[in-house]
Amino acid sequence: MLSIENLTYAFEEKRPIFQKISMNVNEGEFVSVIGASGSGKSTLFKLITGLLEPDKGEIKINGENVGNRLGRVGYMPQQNLLLPWRTVLDNVALPLEIMKENSQKKIPEIREWLTRFGLADVEKAYPDELSGGMRQRVAFLRTIMTGKKLLLLDEPFGALDSLTKRNMHSWLLGLWGELQKTVLFITHDLEEAILLSDRIYLLGRESLKEIHVSLPRPRNPEIIYQSEFVTMRRELERLIQNEN
Q: Domains along the chain?
């Protein structure tokens, strides 16, 4: 689904943010990217989406190395960016309007997704009437409605309080099997990365390390208390400390 080979990027001829990094994301995987602040995680996403262009290296989506990557993936930034004057239903339908599709014909499908996302009762509500968790669900669903198979999620739960975040984890784990999407996910939360991911990439100053998550699916949030989970978290903490 996504292949990155020997990617190098620097801002205005300064020291490269990363050099010659390579990674792959396979169809149907949930892959997280972790690393210290300033390691270039959000920059990596901007390169994948086509908002930035690499100095060296290749970025292939669905095996194609195309010059213009804009619009090839679904991208959810850290802020939900919901339009405050549009209802939940109208916010979710926005990608269809941008792609000049007939959003009215898609209303039954959108309502079906709203039900899956636990948002059926608030389709006529406005963003400022929703909780933080609900706003993130709306933003996530809007990203899905782009129709792209590869979704890039940049710390979508980072601004939520710990209880709401745990509820979002439970919700996403329960929904994951239905989505049939491929996700690349940025997070600073190590528990979140282990709980949700099939694989994790640790982005360091001069390296990219791959960690496989061997925990079986389906997963329950209570798995964070199991010894295997705790051991994996300790190992991630050690690897991050060694990068600093």
A: 2-243 (3.40.50.300)
Whole-structure pTM value: 0.90
Task: Say whether the peptide bond before residue 54 is cis (omega within 30 degrees of 0).
Answer: no
Contact in structure between 224 and 195 (CB atoms under 8 Å): yes
Helix (H, G, I), strand (E, B) or coil at 29: coil
Burial of 37 (0-12, 13-18, 19+ CB in 10 A): exposed
C-alpha distances in Å from residue 113, one per residue of 18, 170, 180, 231, 242: 38, 17, 13, 37, 43
Residues in the chain: 244
pLDDT along the chain (244 residues), means of 10: 90 80 93 86 90 90 81 86 94 88 82 90 95 91 90 87 87 85 92 94 84 90 92 90 74
